[in-house]
């Protein structure tokens, strides 16, 4: 029967649903087909992959020297194989365990005092209504991330050192000076303050991105139900940031034994070995400087194994709390 034109426009046709074959088409591609399809992304990531291969994975072949009495003149092939002798010597060395203790203490202090600060600063910046003011403050806080540790230590020396701004002011007013830059007892708080000043801005960027992903309609609904600012923060903002917080916490725990070689080697002489010796500086001084490369490699390999164990354990705890961690189950 012919359709009768009654002057009413027909409704638009609904888009057809993709067939099961089309939906599974990407999964049916071969490895070469997926590579050809994503060739633009592959080309973009290729420089980073090459850098990782050359400077991160390539040097890992040198870990074999931890099981040798390595001699730089004889090389890998000419140096004798000694098995686990280097590790037995390492585990019986009190200086190694002292550097391990320092590393764990400094990492714990930085985890407790440093990790929450970018979250708090991101929440404060997010509460600023003016976009220009927020962008200006974020740029100022983010700027030290691009400074090298030499410049960071120099700035702190000029501010807090014996001839710095603070002690000069105290002398001019006949007040007792503060020994901050050379005090071994407060060194762990000094390096934490340096890390906060340098890297807090980078953490703010990550947490602001997490805040931007939270649906604003949730805040409007909560405000309509009578929830005040603190209840909205507790029930909407923090749960919305939980995934990112746990991910960064997992990565932080996995990197707990690598708390900064350059930062500590620059200040080791000022505060003494007992306060500033960590695993990285131990490997350098007793391995490279002492011309005992196998011993330093053994210390570095042990640190790497413990870091992997900490990373996997922290990721397991994240899965227990229902989060993805750094990979999904």
User: Measured on Cα atoms, how large is the radius of gyration?
Assistant: 28 Å
Q: What is the overall pLDDT average?
A: 84
How far is it from the N-terminal to the C-terminal residue, by CA?
58 Å
What's the main sheet like? none
Describe the fold and architecture.
The protein is mostly helical and 329 residues long. The model is unreliable at 1-16 and 18-23 (pLDDT under 50). The chain starts with 19 loop residues before the first helix and ends in a 9-residue tail after the last helix. Helix content is 67%, strand content 0%. It is built from 17 helices and no strands.
Short description:
Helix content is 67%, strand content 0%. It has helices at residues 20-23, 31-37, 39-57, 75-78, 85-91, 94-113, 116-126, 131-142, 149-160, 165-172, 187-212, 216-224, 229-254, 261-271, 273-276, 279-289, 293-320. Helix 5 packs across helix 17 and helix 6 crosses helix 11.
Write the topology of this structure.
Layout: H1 20-23, H2 31-37, H3 39-57, H4 75-78, H5 85-91, H6 94-113, H7 116-126, H8 131-142, H9 149-160, H10 165-172, H11 187-212, H12 216-224, H13 229-254, H14 261-271, H15 273-276, H16 279-289, H17 293-320
Helix pairs in contact: 5-17, 6-11, 7-11, 8-11, 11-13, 13-17, 16-17
């Amino acid at each position: 029967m012919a359709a009768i034109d009654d002057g009413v426009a027909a409704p638009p046709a609904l888009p057809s649903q993709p067939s099961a074959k089309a939906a599974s088409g990407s999964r049916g591609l071969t490895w070469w087909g997926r590579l050809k399809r994503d060739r633009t992304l592959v080309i973009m990531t290729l420089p980073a992959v090459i850098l990782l291969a050359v400077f991160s994975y390539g040097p890992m072949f040198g870990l074999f020297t931890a099981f040798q009495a390595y001699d730089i003149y004889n090389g890998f092939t000419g140096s004798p194989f000694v098995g686990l002798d280097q590790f037995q010597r390492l585990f019986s060395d009190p200086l190694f365990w002292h550097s391990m203790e320092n590393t764990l203490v400094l990492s714990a202090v930085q985890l407790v005092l440093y990790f929450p600060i970018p979250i708090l600063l991101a929440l404060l910046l997010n509460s600023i209504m003016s976009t220009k003011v927020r962008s200006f403050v974020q740029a100022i806080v983010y700027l030290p991330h691009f400074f090298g540790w030499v410049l960071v230590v120099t700035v702190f020396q000029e501010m807090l050192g014996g001839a710095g701004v603070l002690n000069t002011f105290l002398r001019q007013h006949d007040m007792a000076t503060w020994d901050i830059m050379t005090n071994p007892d407060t060194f762990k708080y000094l390096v934490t303050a340096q890390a906060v000043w340098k890297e807090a801005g980078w953490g703010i960027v990550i947490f602001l991105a997490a805040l931007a992903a939270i649906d604003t309609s949730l805040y409007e609904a909560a405000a309509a139900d009578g929830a005040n600012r603190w209840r909205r923060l507790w029930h909407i903002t923090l749960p919305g940031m939980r995934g990112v917080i746990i991910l960064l916490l997992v990565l932080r725990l996995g990197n707990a034994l690598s708390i900064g070689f350059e930062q500590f080697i620059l200040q080791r002489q000022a505060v003494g070995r007992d306060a500033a010796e960590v695993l990285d500086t131990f490997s350098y001084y007793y391995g490279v400087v002492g011309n005992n490369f196998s011993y330093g490699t053994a210390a570095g390999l042990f640190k790497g194994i413990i870091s992997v164990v900490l990373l996997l354990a922290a990721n397991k705890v994240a899965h227990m709390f229902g989060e993805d961690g750094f990979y999904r189950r």
